[in-house]
Amino acid sequence: MNDTQSPFDKVNSWIKNSVGLKLGTITILMLLLLIPASMIKSIISEREMLNQSVLNEVSQKWAGKQQINGPILTIPLLYEYEVEDGKIITKTKYLYLLPEQLTVTGKIEPEKLKRGIYEVVVYRSAMQLSGQYNLKVKIDEDHLKEIKYNEAFLTVGISDLRGIEDQITLNWGKQKLDVQPGSKLSEMITSGISIDLPDLSEQINTNIDFSFNLNLQGSQNLSFIPIGSTTNVNLSSTWSSPSFNGNFLPDNREVTDEGFSADWKILQLNRNYPQTWVDKNMREEMQYSALGVDLIMPLDDYQKSMRSSKYAVMTIALIFLVFFLVEILNGRKIHPFQYTLVGLALCLFYILLISISEHSNFNIAYLISAGITSLMILIYAKSVFKSKKFTGVLTATILGIYGFLFVTLQLADYALLMGSIGLALILGITMYFTRNINWYKINMKTE
């Protein structure tokens, strides 16, 4: 019998038994499986965008983000100018005054609205705004003809007027004044309310107290412009996941599972606009000084699903590593098609996770998805490995991966730390179990 092999037989034997070729094939399969993994990320992004569109739609019907700016006191000034031909022309300018003191005390009551399978956070707020104006004003009297104290008015900026729930009455000194819809300072405050004031000529060089209640509904965000020489804002709510934003963080805040409370104190020196000015648009400067709070969903299901999908490469690589080591240590040949089926089963986990989490609690969805995927792979691997020992190793690996991933998703602030530690442990374990393998002499021959 002739034991010599033909070139074709040698090539065929090398293809079947080459460790390097098998590793290359597995690597190519992993790269190809990144295509469905990328498609899964696209699906999650699309569902998140649909959720955002529902949020915007509900906000349009309820009320959008709310920002309170004011009250701003405006007094018309009449100037006379003589031109070259001796004619006299008049021009009206406007004097803007901000309050010496502004105090805002508010309570925010969040509500969850549902549209289909989506959940949107909105709120109702009850606020009391109070403060004091000092009418000791120095005005440039050059060409000044008249100060129209009888035409003075207040303007309060409110981003979305649909959110006003009750009639607003302004307490101005000892008088009660009604408000009118619309802003008379359209360039500075695009949306708001106006209050015509009584003749201020008898109140010059005095301090005037003001106050009003504002019951306002909105969604996602509530913010304020600190226009007082000293502005104090105190907010409280039963919402346990606030995000404080703007250019000023609270001086004091407390966040618990029962809700939050926060206090701001802003001085005139902290902002880049004065307490009084004439004929200037300070809109940008005011917007830059805004402060407020977002009512955010605490790491919603779409964020968790997207974060979990980022670990798809690691999950596929580890499971494939177990299958490859079984080939090396147990002599069981595993066809690339079998690797592919296992990889697709791992990708299926993310589809199950996002679809089930839209209809139930995320943790329950995770348990169901991981359970189905693990069971599919383990039943399939048992028939492939023909070994309880290696099936047990694969079981421990899968449970470890999904357990590690679940813990990482829960610890949002420590996700990077957990991920890096987990990867270090995985690499260390892999190095330990493969430390005695002679990769130059090993081959893929079966028992």
Automatic annotation (TrEMBL):
InterPro entries: Uncharacterised_IM_CreD
Keywords linked to the UniProt accession: Membrane, Transmembrane, Transmembrane helix
A Gene Ontology term for the protein's cellular component: plasma membrane
TM segment ranges: 21-40, 311-330, 337-356, 362-381, 390-409, 415-434
Signal peptide: none
Record protein name field: Inner membrane protein
Lineage, opening ranks: Bacteria, Pseudomonadati, Bacteroidota, Bacteroidia, Marinilabiliales
